[in-house]
Amino acid sequence: MPDQLIWAMEVTLNGLMTGVMYALVALGFVLIFKASGIFNYAQGVMALFAAMTLVGIQEGRIPFAHLINEIFGTEIHHFGWHVPALLAILLTVVVMIGFAWAVQRFIFKHLVGQEPIILFMATIGLAYFLEGVSDLMWGSEIRTLDVGLPQGINGWIDNTTFDVFGYGFFIDNLDISASIVAAILVAGLILYSQYTKNGRAMRAVADDHQAALSVGISLNYVWVLVWSLAGIVALVAGIMWGSKSGVQFSLSLIALKALPVLMLGGFTSIPGAIVGGLIIGVGEALFEFAIGPMIGGATENWFAYVLALVFLVFRPQGLFGEKIIERV
Amino acid sequence: MFYREAGDFKTSYAEDNQTFPIKFDRFRYYAVLLVALGIIPFFINDYWANALLIPFLIYAIAAIGLNILTGYCGQVSLGTGGFMAVGAYASYKLMTAFPWMDMVSVTLLAGLITAMVGVAFGLPSLRIKGFYLAVATLAAQFFLVWMFNKVPWFYNYSASGQISAPERTMFGLAVTGPNADAWVRYLFCLFFVFVLAWLARNLTRGSIGRQWMAIRDMDIAAEIIGVNPLKAKLTAFAVSSFFVGIAGGLLFTVYLGAVEVGEAFGITKSFLVLFMIIIGGLGSLFGSFAGAAFMVLLPVVLRNFMTGTLGWESTIATHFEFVIVGGLIMFFLIVEPHGLARLWQLTKEKLRLWPFPH
């Protein structure tokens, strides 16, 4: 087999893994958008905030330490204990649920019935706000996150492919575990929304707000629930991206990457988010591999958007989105 | 009492159709012009020009541009930073390729080039609507910034990848470059703000502006009553990009002088201009000015207060700035979704009756 083809296969596999990561972020968007019609730009910052909180709790940092030191002239940094990973994750989930409640109570409760674009802009404001809070709480330095996931090259794949093709593929263990976690998460979400009472309420609200309200479903409760779920998805995405490249500001930018994924898959479809993520991941990896060197590289900055743009011109509602019906 | 229409009679159509039909508005406008042209240029110094006045004027142009597209025509764009970059690089290429060309022509041509790019990226808006379009404009943002970074022709093969504005003079006075006086740069920007605001005002109240608003309110209905959506949307993209391109050109030539594209025209710039029109008021020219003033003034005031008065570290001040800007945006959207322009309108209503509220 020619070398180029083998390399392309490796690139494709790695692209698939990246695509899973994109899909993880996109999933959080879809959850909120389906249930409340809010296009949550803050999803990426939520991932950053969740990962920062996780690291902070794990290392026993004191929240707002910098600020307290600055105001009161003290010198405090750590509580001096280390929290095991699992407990820290649970505590972070509690924080994210509290955050979901606060968002619903203080912001979106007051914006019910506003135009979608106003809601979207409110989430941009929320993103700025949360980013500032996250920096104030935990500082803005790059943190390493380690929750005990396997890292480094996967030896088995390396050996097997070396035997077959005479060239070992480099696949990160972390990417593989991310894919497995993503699969579990999606399966869990689907089961949850199909077979539990809360899940049914969520779907009812997604279908029709007023009808759901009239059969006695509390919109407020469902929205808090959905934001909490999105917070948990953000935490998972934050853990995955954070263990891969450190918890830092650029984590919040993956939200921007999730947008073309959503456009491809359609804003309202969970399978769409997954498939869209995979297409974008593979597409940009292959494009960078095949065409990137010819035109200066770093094409992954924009390729996803242009791909989504071209695609949308032919199919405006995305791959799996509900057909857009417009009436006057 | 202070603001009223009573006793202000019109006896001709020309009077009735003037830009500011109410006497109070008209005099206020003259007063603002008098201060801007007759007083500020004599007292301006480098600090005031660089920290407040010039960025305010330039961002006002950008905000008017985005307001035409988003506020009047209803097409949300997140590509403002990319279009500003087009304006800046077009100015740079024109200035270096045609050294004899005067700055007004350079800036206007840069605006026209940006308008063409804007139309190209506006074409998908005929098929794509709402959020999908907002995300599609991100393609413009990222692609344009990438292109200016990667194609050496745009920055004349300079080693640093930066572009820097050479010195150009008008009427014997340096407008760009390090030797330009604050008042010259200020007046140069003011000239563009004046002309463009006048243009925008008349476009938005004419037939084309009404077409834009019809498209914004409901595009299918507008199409049925005979508005050509192709023409309306593409003209909105063209005019908006023209304004934004001029703002980008001025930002580079007059204000910054040297620019690194990812830093100066990144996605944050797109959001900054978007915030200006949200806080100022969508679909209002006054709102564009108010929003630009607010967003330029706020960081300066906050930073002075926190690092100066309270003596905090600058990093903490920066983080607080994020919290406050984000919080303010949400606060505005909740309390007054129509922005400062609406607040101003309410104030006028109150002033009309003052001091007797009924």
Q: What does it look like?
A:
The complex is a heterodimer of chains A (328) and B (358). Chain A has 13 helices and no strands. Chain A starts with a helix and ends in a 14-residue tail after the last helix. Chain A has one domain (3-314). Helix content of chain A is 69%, strand content 0%. By secondary structure, chain A is mainly alpha-helical. Chain A has helices spanning 3-36, 43-58, 65-72, 85-106, 116-138, 155-165, 173-195, 197-207, 209-214, 219-245, 254-265, 270-290, 303-314. Chain B is mainly α and 358 residues long. Chain B has a domain at 44-274. Helix content of chain B is 72%, strand content 2%. Chain B has 15 helices and four strands. Chain B has helices at 13-16, 23-43, 46-72, 80-97, 103-122, 130-150, 182-204, 207-217, 219-224, 229-256, 261-264, 267-280, 285-309, 314-335, 339-353; strands at 163-164, 169-170, 173-174, 258-259. In chain B, the strands form two sheets. Chain B has a two-stranded antiparallel ribbon with strand order 1-4. In chain B, strand 2 and strand 3 (173-174) form a beta hairpin. In chain B, helix 4 (80-97) packs across helix 10 (229-256). The radius of gyration of chain B is 21 Å and the shape is globular. The two termini of chain B are 12 Å apart. The chains are: A mainly alpha (328), B mainly alpha (358).
